[in-house]
Amino acid sequence: MARPEDTVLTEIDKFMDEVTDRIFQLSQENLTEPHIKVFKSGKTKTITTSDTSFLFSKGNVNRQFLKKEIVYPVPYATDVEFGNAGIQVKPEDLFKWVRRKLLKGKGKESTVKRTATNIANSLAERGQSPDPYLQPAISQAKAEFKGKII
Question: Looking at the structure, do residues 74 and 20 belong to the same domain, yes or no?
Fold first, then answer.
């Protein structure tokens, strides 16, 4: 026969799964659905989070009893969520992305190099504006689950 404390812990674990699943769902939606982004300059624009298909595909939930962890194990996940003050990127590291995402495979090599260099310089000078996907999901889930805690 199960001890009462084991039953309570099992129910808490189930509730933790429910909350974690909702936060993960919302974070995935935030990565794919259009929303308003506020840039460091103060300008706003309705966008879908910038080039996040890989970030989206790598997101997952690690589960253990009474321990849940939402992870986005890509090197730039924190930069997307919180932005950064300026990062050094080699233009050649951007060539493939520029060809695929910006030029759709149709640009000349000189255009690829020039575009990648401009992006690298901009990232170094201005950094990247935050485009949060996880923190808003946590806030929304907190509001949704408020008062539902056992």
Answer: yes
Distances (CA, A) of 70 to 6, 26, 74, 122: 25, 12, 13, 31
CB 84 within 8 A of CB 105: no
Residues 6, 72, single domain; the answer is: yes
Sign of CA dihedral 45, 48, 52, 55: positive
Range of the domain at 104: 85-127
121 and 138 belong to one structural domain: no
Q: Which residues contact 35 (CB under 8 A, 6 or more apart)?
A: 46, 47, 48, 49
Residues 28 and 73 in one domain: yes
Q: Is the pLDDT of residue 112 over 90?
A: no
Percent of the chain at pLDDT above 90? Answer: 45
Q: Which amino acid is at 26?
A: L
Same domain flag for 6 and 64: yes
Is residue 116 domain-shared with residue 147, that is, in the same domain? no
pTM value surpassing 0.85: no
DSSP 8-state secondary structure symbol assigned to residue 107: S
Q: How would residue 5 be classed by pLDDT, with cut points 50, 70 and 90?
A: confident
Q: What's the rounded Cα separation, in Å, for the pair 53 and 38?
A: 21
